[in-house]
Amino acid sequence: MDIVYKKPTLLDIKNMQKLVKPEVDKGIILYRSDDEMAMNIRSYFVAELNKEIVGFCALQIYSIKLGEIRSLIVKDGLRGKNIGKNLITCIEKEGKELGVEELFSLTYERGFFEKLGYQEIDKDKLPEQKIWADCIKCKLFPICKEIAFIKAI
Ligand SMILES: CC(C)(COP(=O)(O)OP(=O)(O)OC[C@H]1O[C@@H](n2cnc3c(N)ncnc32)[C@H](O)[C@@H]1OP(=O)(O)O)[C@@H](O)C(=O)NCCC(=O)NCCS
Fold first, then answer.
1. Residue whose CA is closest, atom 25 of ligand 1?
2. How many Cβ atoms sit within 10 Å of the Cβ of residue 4?
3. Could you read off the pLDDT of 3-34 as tens digits, one per residue?
4. Which residue ranges make up each domain of the chain?
5. With respect to CATH, is domain 3-152 assigned 3.40.50.920?
6. pLDDT tens for residues 24-64?
7. For the chain, percent of residues with pLDDT exceeding 90
8. CB of residue 46 inside a 6 A radius of ligand 1
9. 107 lines ligand 1 (CB under 6 A)
């Protein structure tokens, strides 16, 4: 399978929204408006198969050492083919180049993150900006069963 990993442009946002909608509807991934995605377009990587976006992920930076993996999605039907893992590799590489020392993620995907070397941490250790900027917008807040994972990169 010839998957290309690259930075998206503003023109990709419509298709990224289509891809993520089922997971947003289920409450697995937080809804982000077109404008919010546009403002953060530089934070994303997309995976493309025959010019179709089949996955994406974003790197959000919180401090001079801490970043977050967010909005990770792979198209249903193409999961289990290392696309998610390769997207995380792109994020880790970019984070490292920028000087990020640790990456965290809030997720239901325990097995996936453990496989990639992430360790569970107490959610209280997350930066407050995360809770107030993102979690508060979530329909599951404050009764959230997501687990926090972190890794030194
Ligand atoms: C989570 C998700 C992105 C994983 O992407 P994926 O492309 O299917 O995962 P990969 O194929 O890259 O898996 C990488 C490794 O993790 C393992 N893995 C993946 N999901 C796993 C799970 N739930 N439990 C245990 N291991 C898992 C794979 O077997 C693979 O191992 P290998 O390297 O030994 O082959 C995908 O399932 C998804 O889009 N889920 C819905 C959205 C979501 O939950 N996003 C996470 C929000 S943070």
1. 111
2. 10
3. 999 999 999 999 999 999 999 999 899 999 99
4. 3-152
5. no
6. 999 899 999 999 999 999 999 999 999 999 999 999 999 99
7. 82
8. no
9. yes
Q: What is the CA radius of gyration of the chain?
A: 15
Provide the pLDDT for residue 139: 76
| Residue 85 CA to ligand 1 centre (angstroms) | 7
- Tokens 């069963």 belong to residue: 145
Tell me if 23 CB under 6 Å of ligand 1.
yes
Residue closest to 72 by CA, chosen among 93, 46, 41: 46
Q: Please, what is the Cα angle at 152 between 140 and 16, to 5 degrees?
A: 45
According to DSSP, the residues that pair with 67 across neighbouring strands are: 61, 103
> Using CB atoms within 10 A of its CB, is residue 27 exposed (0-12), middle (13-18) or buried (19+)?
middle
